[in-house]
Structure formats: C-alpha cells, structure tokens
Fold each of these.
Amino acid sequence: MTKSSQREWLIAPGPASKELAINIARNVGADILYIDSKIFPDGESYFRIINDVRNKRVAIVQSTYPPVDRHISQLLFLAHKLSEDGAEVHAIIPYLAYARQHRAFLQGEVVSLGVFAHLLRSVGVKRVVTVDIHNVEGLGLFSMPAYSVSAIPLLAEYFSKNHTLSEAVAISPDFGGSVRVEAFARILKINHIVLEKVRDRTTGEIIFKDVAKQVQNKDVILVDDIISSGKTMELAAMKLKEWGAKRIFATCTHPLLVEDALDRIKKAGFEEVIGTNTIPSPVSKIDVAPILASYLSTL
Ligand code: R5P
C-alpha cells in the first residue's frame, strides 16, 4: 500500500451537495466534517468550522448548479477556511458550472471556466474532481490536477436493468457528445448516431439533419451531458417522432432543468427521463457517489 492510499479522507459537505457528500463518505468509509452554515436575509452565506483539520486531507463536495454564483462562493469560502486551517483541500464539484464556456467562441467573450479555475487555485484547492465535464479541453484550464469521472456506465447500467429495448439506438444530439454516446452504446451493445446539430450562437436556434432511415421503428435513447432549458431534447424528440422512432428515452448526467424545462420535456413525449444526482431534481435517479468514492480511493 502506498503512503497516499493510507491517508484517510474527511468529507466536507457543501450546502449544495449534503446528501451526495454523505453518500460519498459512506462509500469511502470517511468521516464527515461538521460545518455550521446559514444564509443571511440579504443572501450572504456564513460558515463556521470548529473541528481541527490541520494536516487532514479534506474533500469538499459542492456542486455548482443554480444559484451558480452562490454555490461557487460557498465553495471558495469553505476551501479558503480549510486551507487556512492547514488542511489539504480537494474540491469535488459534481456539476462544474461554466464548463460550457471553456473557451471564447465569439471575440471578446470571458473564458468563465478559466476564471473559476483560477479562483479555486487562489483559495488553496489542490485537486478538482468533477463528473462528465462538458468538454475535456476544459480540464486544461486548471493549474492543479483536475479529473472528470464518467457517469455514462451508470446510465447504461440503468437501462440494462430497467428496460427491455427493441432494436435500440443511442443518439447524441450533437458532435460534442460523440465520445459519451459511443461509450454508452458500447456498454449496451447497441448502435449509436451523432445528430448533426447546428446552433446559432447568437439566436440559439437549433436545426438537425435527417436520420429517419436509422431510427424508424426503433427505440431511441438520447444521451447528453446536460439538460438545461430542455430545448435540445424537445426538438430532438419532435424530429425523432417525425422520423418514425418507436419509444424515445432521454438520459443525461446533469439535469439542470432550468425554468420550465421539466414541463417541456414531459410534454415532448419521452418514455422516461433519467439523470444523476450531481444536481438534485425529480429525474435524478442515479447516484454518482460510488464513482466519486472509488476515484478518491485511488488517491
Ligand atoms: C450543449 O452542447 C450540451 O451538451 C447540451 O446539449 C445543452 O447544454 C442542452 O441545453 P438545453 O437543454 O438548454 O437545450
């Protein structure tokens, strides 16, 4: 056994991910750090940590779903305090906000993920772990070790346990999801297609190229990293129905489900929508704690 694998973890539950942090601690066999926290009426967050964390290896679990900037501030406050108190701080950020802005797509855009990475560094974070980062290129913006574990095997396992699929096809709504959909399809031993989605970066309008021949009379599973407004899934479902698909399922790692997204996808006629608990939501049916815990166990 190496020296590092003998060191125990202390799990610090951030306000956004208390339940998930407890599950990770249980899976890894680690203690949970007690954090006194509250939110003042004006929206400011308050934290107090009284336990001794000197020389301890602490993993803060804090997902950065909406309210995004509050959850980021909370993560930064906790990391700063724990570093100041002498802990070796690791940040588990199950849903990594701003991962879709890992570069400037239009001239003059802020590379928000780069700023977030810089802030994490400035408060002493020594390592970042996330789940299914939107684009692995984003990991390159971190100046400390940064790693993305994949929930795709868990999503695939859910389908093999819960559904008998007929001639199923896994579909990524865009090119960016190619690696994810391929991995998903390989596990289920089914075919996969990457839809050609074109999104106008100014108006947000999406158009898909026809794949009717490949989906007619087949069960289809749309696989994406994020369902945010639900518009991508809604439009894909509409097209797939037009192209003669049988049952349509949607699965994603991060069910952001902003505003009326849940209603939108319910109305779109999906057989089932399945997400993970990187973000708590009515469709967060899959627990990512085992994959995060098993990653921590390798360190
Ligand atoms: C985009 O490239 C992502 O992979 C998702 O397809 C996108 O974030 C989904 O967004 P929405 O649900 O708002 O269409």
Amino acid sequence: MKISDSMTAAINDQIKAEFDSAYIYLAMSAYFEDCGLSGMAHWMKKQYKEEVEHAEKFIDYLYERGARVIIPEIAKPKENYSDALDVFKTAYAHEQYVTSRIYKLVDMAVEEKDYATQSMLKWYVDEQLEEEDNTGSIVSKLEFLGKDNHSLYIIDRELSAR
Ligand code: OFO
C-alpha cells in the first residue's frame, strides 16, 4: 500500500527534527569541551551520533515505502549555557518535546490506518522512553550532588564511560 503524501511530509519533517536534535547535541558537546568537561562532551557527541542514526532510520523507511526524501536545512543551535545543569535540563526538555512529536506521528498513522508506519514508530516510542530516562536521570544527579567542582568531576568521569 502506498504511503500517503501527508504521512510522507510528516516523516520528512521529523527527519529535520532529528537532524536539528543532532546539531543541538553537537553544540552542547562543543560547549562542554570548552568548559573542560570532556566526559560530558563525549556523552553529548555520542548523543549527536544517535540522533543522526534516528534521522537515517526515518530516511531508510521512506525509501522502503518508495517515498521522496527531502534533505532538510538544519537550524543553528544555541551555543552558550549557564552551566552543566542548564545543558542537561535543556536536553531533557528537548527529549520531552521530541516524544510529543513522535506521539503525534503515531496518532496520524492510527488515523490513516497506516499499519506499517505504526509498526515502524514503535521503535521510536521505546527509544524516546530511554532518551527521557537518560537525560532526566543526569538532571537528577546534578541536582542531587550540587554544582561544586568535586560533584562535576565525579559526574563528568561517569559520563565519559558512555
Ligand atoms: Fe531522536 O531522540 Fe533525541 O531527539
């Protein structure tokens, strides 16, 4: 069955959102490098690569459905943050936003009775659960341990193991 034009457009829009996410995390990685927090920079760089994979997975899905992929323009990400907690709070809020986008795609696929897209999106629903949990738990850790250099050193070392 042919994928609808509206679903193709919505997935193309999500491809852009995934690349935008990638750039946001790459900019966060650069911010951490500049602060000398190389473990956090490493964590964000990994996140950037994951987001590129998310975009590619959508691209491959549209290819599979014989639909046209539009390679998007990527928005310039924010460069500066007040501290590590600010960065991870922003990342957590961003993942909640992305989850809401994925849920809208699911709603659309259900409305259109597009079972193949519903099945494909299941992976993203599960992935978003993990993404929110990952960023949210780092926010909790930063809030719990505080912002002093010793706490930052411990969390930075922990994140370097990702
Ligand atoms: Fe693609 O999950 Fe984060 O944004």
Amino acid sequence: MLIFSIETSCDETAVAVTRNGREVLADEICSQADMHALYGGVVPELASRNHIAVIGRLSDMALRKAGITKGDIDAVAVTYTPGLIGALLVGVNFAKGLALALGVPLIPVHHIRGHIAANYIAYPELEPPFLALIVSGGNSLIADVRGYTDIRIIGSSRDDAAGECFDKVARVLGLPYPGGRPLDELSRGGDDTAFRLPRARIEGAPYDMSFSGLKTAVVNIVHNAGQKGETLHLPSLAASFTSAVSDTLVPRTMMAARELGYNKIAIAGGVAANSRIRTDFIKAAAAEGKTLLIPPLSLCGDNGAMIGCQAYYEYLAGKSAGMDLNAYATMDVDDLYA
Ligand code: KG4
C-alpha cells in the first residue's frame, strides 16, 4: 500500500511516500528554522504562510523522488493534531484536496504516534509492545506502546517540554534558535558538575516530569552573573543543564520499563538527538540488559515518513476520515478521531 503523507504541525513542511508502513520511497523536508531564528522562536502565522508556499512543490518533488505518479497513491495521510492550528490546517486541507481528487482514503495521524512510528522505519523488525519516550519541542511523554494503535501515556511533563526547555536555555546563553543542537555542541567541552541544578520529582506521579524549575534556575544563574559582571563558563553551564535533563529522562524511563516488564525501549523526538542523553540511555540500557532503539538523527525530528508509517497501521485498524476532518491544537494520544 503506497501512502502519501503530509506533516505541517510546526515549522517543518514534510511530505513522504512510504510503502506498507516500513519502506520509505521519498521523505522531503523543508525546514523553516532559519526564518524563525530571526525571531528567536516559531512565529505561527509565518509558519502557516510558508507551509502554503512550499507544500505543492515539495509534494511534486516527493512524487518524483519516489518514482511514482499521483495515480499510484493508495491513501493520503496527514498530521491533524497536536500542533500550531494554522500550520496543521494547511496540511489537513492539502491532504483533503488530494484525497478527494484521487478518490483514495484520508488517514488522520496523531503527531506523537508518528514520532513513535519513526522507530518502525529505523528498526524494520520492531513490533509492539515496547516502552517509548517521546521528547520533542512540544512534548515530553513516556508511552506504553501496547499495540500499533493502542498507546497509553503513563508519564508526561507538567510544564515545559524538554525541547522547549533546551530552546529557552539556549536563548539565554545567546545561542541561535532552535537551541537544542547548538547547546549540545557547546556542552561537549564543559564540566557537567560545575553547576548544581534541580531535578524535579512529582509526588505520587513517578513518571511525570517538570522542566520549568530547571529552566528558571539556569536563567537566574545567567542573570545574577550578568548583574555582578561575572563571566560564566558557558560550556559547563550547558553540560550541567543537559545532565539535569538527562537525569530527569533516563532513570524515569528505565524505571517504567522495569515496572511494566518491557525489554525494548524506543526513544523518539528531536531531543533524542542529544548526544549526552543518547550516551546515558545506551549505558543505562546496557547495564540492565535492555534493547535500546534510537532512530537516526534524520528520523528524530519532524518528518513525513513517520506519519506515513503510522498511517499504515491506523488504516489497518480501520481509521480513516471524511472531508469534515479538522485540525486540533491538542489532543490526547489515545483520544483518536473516530
Ligand atoms: O521533534 P522535533 O523536531 O519537533 C517537534 O515536534 O517539536 O523537536 C524539536 C526540538 C527542539 O526543541 C530542538 O531544540 C530539540 O528538538 N533538539 C535538541 C537537539 N536537536 C534538536 N535538543 C537537544 N539536543 C539536540 N541535539
């Protein structure tokens, strides 16, 4: 089954062609990051306008790359939640038009389910059940993946997402947006014990997380140093911060895997690209004899292939949408369009 998939939930316009949920024939991405970097964060209105400007040409490129024509497409899939509403609507309406014109099913895909599905592309043998950690710019979630479409969230951030925290801390350190990768690079020359930073725990909710206190602590260190005219060793501050994020993510995820009895742990989302967090996960998984699944960097961030992959399983489970499909800024991962 050939699925043409579209992802426009934030600042990447992404279009892919996938076969049977596992094989990627084309995966075209047009990132707007440079444009939003001017403003230090994503400007929703600009994101929507830019999706409109490029989605048609990007789709033609994907078809050419896959070596197919529109007539070969068996279904059209699209991210319909969560994300920036105007940005999502561009993809949803484009997908509706295409599905209607071709007379093929329209498959709505939850963005977080897509991030989990990136692992099916990276690991063709992988099948549920397994535990997944999704850490992106908008979400930090621990998910019990019982089946391809039976996914339960068992822990999440109570405030900022991990990626959002990386971006805000990077900004206060003077790094460009999106700050995760430059902060990762900066931290490599630093001492991760140089600054004492908080690791929040939530009473009675062992898998939940909180990053806003950590973010505020770093902001306060930078402002206090500025007021006193002191110079901070920024690589060490970046390394101490990253170590605090890793200490929040890794032990929780490992504990959840132990308690749920899972041997396979999949990591997904942009923050999964972080070198320190990857290293800590590799060590922790090796120490407990668990199999760690981390997609390559290209599949960690937003992409269309992961949406096409998940769409295949949604379709097999009987999910498809009509022309009344809407976009939603937020929706629980298990509260699906029916
Ligand atoms: O999954 P993603 O591409 O988009 C969302 O769905 O949000 O994640 C983007 C987030 C951004 O916050 C970015 O700063 C962060 O992932 N990120 C990183 C790294 N690369 C990207 N955070 C930490 N270390 C990295 N190497």
Amino acid sequence: MYFDNGATTQVDPEVVKAMLPYFTKKYGNASSLHKYGREARKAIEDARTIIANYLNVKPSEVIFTSGGTESDNLAIKGVAEAHGKGHIITSSIEHHAVLNTCKHLEKKGFKITYLPVDKYGFVDLNKLRESIRKDTILVSIMHANNEIGTIEPIEEISKICRREGVLFHTDAVQSFTKVPIKGPDLISISSHKIHGPKGVGALIKKESVKIVRQNDGGNHEFGLRAGTENVPGIVGFAKAVQLSKPSHVQEMTKLRDYIIDKILKIPDSWLNGHREKRLCNNINVSFKNIEGESLLLYLDSKGIAVSTGSACSSHELKPSHVLMAIGLRPEEAHGTIRITLSRFNTKEEADTLIKEVEAGVEKLRRMSPW
Ligand code: PLP
C-alpha cells in the first residue's frame, strides 16, 4: 500500500501507453529535419500546448527541463545572473532545490533573506513587504509545502511583488494539478508528482522575464535549456496533465479528512500544517514519545509505505528544517510521519493504514524508554 505520493507517484498506465511509441517507433531527435525528427518535434509542441493551455499561458512560456530541481535552479540562478547582483527573498521552509540554490548564490555575493513562518507554515506577508528593498530582484516562495502541505497565499504574494516591481517565482511541484496557480512570473512544475514519468518537468516563465541559461549547448527550448529533448518524458508529462481531474482533488480531500479524523483520536498526536489550507493529499502527524522512523519501519513491515519527511530529508538524522521552522522541538519533529495520497488510494487501504498506525504507535510506546 503506497502512501508516499509526495515523494513520487505511480505512472498512470495511460501515460505509459502514450509514451511507448516514442521509444520504439517515433524515436527521432526533435532537431532532425526528416520525418522522424518532425514527428518528435510535433509531439513536443503538442505537449507544450497542452501544458500551456492548462496553465493559461503561451506555449512559448513553457520551458521543458529535467524536473522540479532543474526548474528551480534555472529560475533562481537564471534571474540572479540576468541581474548580476542583488537581493533575493525566500522562505525558511522551501525545498532544498530552492534553499541550496539560494545558499550557492549567497556564496557568489547575492544577499538572501530567509523569511520565517508561523506555526502553520504560512509566510508573514507583512514581513515580506518589510523585507523588500531597492535592490531586491526576486521573491521565491513555494506554492505548497512538500512536508506539511501548507498552501501559501501566492496570489497575494504576486500582488505585493507586482506592486513593488519585483519578480516572483513559485515552486509549484507539489501543488500542480491540485491547486489552481495564478500570478507568479516563474513557476516550477514536475511530472513525477502527478503520475507522469521521472526526469521531466518545466519552468513556466513569462515572456517579459529575462533569465540566463544554466547549461550551454544547442539552441533547444528557446535557447534557455540546451540538450536533446526527452520526447517520451515530455509526451508522458502532458498526458499526465490531461488525465488530472478536479474530481480527484475532491476524492483525495475526503480521504485525507477521513484519515486525519481517525488518526488524531490516538492520544498525544497532532496534525502539522493547517487543517484546511493544505494539499488535498497531505497528512503530516506527530506522536509524542514515538520515533517516526520506527513507525515507518513498522508500517513497512506491514506492507505500507509512508515517509518521515520529504523524500530527500528522510535519509538525514537532522530534524526536518520545516518542522523546526514551525516551532516543533527536535524530539517532536522526530516523532512525525507524512502520509501522502494519490487518486489510486482507496478507503479500504485507508482503513488498513489507520489500523496499523494505531497498532504501531501502541506497540512502540509500550517499548519506549520515555
Ligand atoms: N520542489 C518540491 C516542493 C518538491 O517536493 C520536490 C520533490 O520532492 C522538488 C522541488 C524536486 O523536484 P524533482 O524531483 O522533479 O527534481
């Protein structure tokens, strides 16, 4: 039973079907002039149009990349290098793709402000306003947090940035197809979080925004991302977008709320993030006197996959920077698991999950030295 869809998702069989011809039959290089090349080019441009229409942007504003990490790097380093110097504002709960990019730029002389968040993980808009300076070139605040699911007020942030004449980038890797996105100048999205293949994503960039390319080579993707295009991946990404439906969000929200209500009946447990303004598929819960990792392994032994944080922090011993930022103590952060749903999860699976979480918590607490 798979409840780690915030890390990655099952590729939808329809997506696989759409991709297959581009491995074995229509395998041309989209830069070639012959029939094979033209077929590949058409597939890419059709996919670009599907994603552009979905987000209500122009096809020329969709730059295909290798995923969310590359899109974040291209957006932030791209804007920074286009300006040469300046100040960037981000939040303390960003994904490492944003945080480490900002740290890299800090070493190069850029000034970075890391905004704190409140107990739910919301960025304080007054603090954002106060932090904008004459030399601020970019604000990068994520749309929805990958660990606690909190949805940031990006329309408000867009308005503030527009009023101040500052560019706004959002990492929408977790929210894409789940929450409507409106306002930012640059948006990072990724295919493998939405039942598409891994290794493909896009940076959505308003035409007027100038960025510097991050890899040199051919003139692919409007001269902004060199490298032979991943045609099957791009086709699969667009198919995954087409297959996403508003009804999936409603179903996941219902299942999420069902699981939260049941799990919070366990004594000394609490939900991290906001109860309503959270991703439809995210449940992040802490249990007093429990090691999240031990609970994860207990559930794993029962055939249930969850995580203790974001995919990339789950091999670290340090408590999650997101849980620390919302005010948890290290031992509380360590007693946390993240359950992330997809449209393929069922009520029956949820019932088994709830039963095993209850049993696991009880067993671990009985063995606990606390
Ligand atoms: N940003 C967020 C919020 C994420 O959750 C992830 C993946 O976990 C990424 C960026 C990285 O995306 P990708 O795995 O496509 O590089």
